[in-house]
Amino acid sequence: MSIFFVIPIFLFVVGFWIYISKRKHLMNMLISLEYIVLSIFMLLMMVTFIMGLEMYAGLIYLIASVCEGSLGVGIMVGMVRSHGSDYVASLNSLKC
């Protein structure tokens, strides 16, 4: 494997590890999800560039990731307004 493929895979693993380990605040989880999305986009663009394919798939992927990010921020704003903080543990439905 080339070093150009190892870097996005490493970034994906680091982003996934942060997503798993930092579960206290919703904002940390959203930032790590966007980090994972950007690492997948980087890998997607490298593969399409090396294979000589058109890069419209990257544009569609970015559009979907922007929609996912705005939906996450909207959910976080609603949660802060209703519960007073972005602590994931403050949701009543998640308490065991």
Describe the protein's architecture and organization.
It is a multi-pass membrane protein. By secondary structure, this protein is mainly α. The protein has one domain (3-94): Helix Hairpins (Orthogonal Bundle), CATH 1.10.287.3510. It is built from three helices and no strands. It has helices spanning 3-21, 26-51, 56-83. α1 packs antiparallel against α2 and α2 packs antiparallel against α3. The chain is elongated, with a radius of gyration of 16 Å.
Based on CA atoms alone, the radius of gyration comes out at 16 Å
Q: Provide the low-confidence segments as ranges.
A: none
Shape: elongated
| Strand residue percentage | under 5%
What is the typical, i.e. mean, pLDDT?
84
Name the helix and strand elements from N-terminus to C-terminus, one letter apiece: HHH
- The total of beta strands comes to 0
Structural class: mainly alpha
Count the helices. How many?
3
Helix content: over 70%
| Known CATH architecture | Orthogonal Bundle
What's the CATH class label? Mainly Alpha
Describe the protein's topology.
Elements: H1 3-21, H2 26-51, H3 56-83
Protein name: NADH-ubiquinone oxidoreductase chain 4L
GO molecular function: NADH dehydrogenase (ubiquinone) activity
Pfam families: Oxidored_q2
Primary descriptors:
about 100 residues; mainly alpha; Helix Hairpins; 3 helices; elongated; NADH-ubiquinone oxidoreductase chain 4L; NADH dehydrogenase (ubiquinone) activity; NUOK/Mnh_C1-like
Summary?
This protein is an all-alpha fold. It has helices at 3-21, 26-51, 56-83. It is elongated, with a radius of gyration of 16 Å.
